[in-house]
Amino acid sequence: MTSVRSSLLSTVSAGLLAFVLGGSLSYFGAERLTLLYMGPSFSELGHKEGHKLSRVTQSLYGLELSRLLTQSTPVSLQRSVGCLRHIRAGSPPEVAHAIDLQLATDYSALALLEQQANDPSAAASHRQIAASLLQSIGWKDTSEGALDNLAVHYMHKGTKP
Amino acid sequence: MSAQLRSTIVVAALAGILTGGTLGAYMARKNDGIVESARVIAASSATAAFAAEQFRHADPQHAREAVMLQIDLLQQFERIAPSSVHERNLGFAYTRLAMVDEAAGQKADSEVAFQHAKDWFQKVHPENRLTDVQMESFVRHLEKPPADRPPLP
Description:
By secondary structure, chain A is mostly helical.
């Protein structure tokens, strides 16, 4: 009786293990194969255009996530700057200016926090970067007041820069 | 290994492969659709915010480039999956383009852009024929923070 029960138990265990192992391997394999077969996102536009749109939306998705997740602290803003620089390096040229605006906003916010923390040299350096980014995207006013305004809007109202 | 055990393992593994494969293919399609939708929403929002900010602060050339980026993206989204959301956003984007051209003294270009804006709004609200002034006031209204927005006429 005991040997029958033990044999049944080992058969069931082995069967379960085979089911889970086979299922897991097949799940990941099928997932990858399906994504490969489906091709890049937006393939309705054709391979070249779809691929280009996919890259543009990927960069803008990263930009939007960075804006949503960044908090008004130096650490978070520094992290956001790092992420945005990484996104910008791999992004198509048409979205570079949109990323530059967010970079300038983050630098302005950093400068404002550093000013409040009595670190005027760091604040001046970050303001300078922000001003030069804004000039490159055609902003007419890149004075300290304009940069502080941009930062305050972004940090306190939770609105888009 | 007994014959019974061997056949159990083979049958269970086959059942696992079949189940896992079906589930994997289904989840890949589902997740790809979700990610694509999230990217469309994020891209629409990011370009609209960028165009609004450039309109307020940048020179006419850069403001125009920003709104053209928004229009270009929205038109591609509309080609892939026509939606009243993209059509309405295109109406707003063309209105902003008309305002940029008007501010730059390009009257003829501004009129063309206003006409495009009207055509897109007409698709969403066929019963209403908006004037240039109404469309412009909608765009200016949306640029204000929600708390500062007066009620629309």
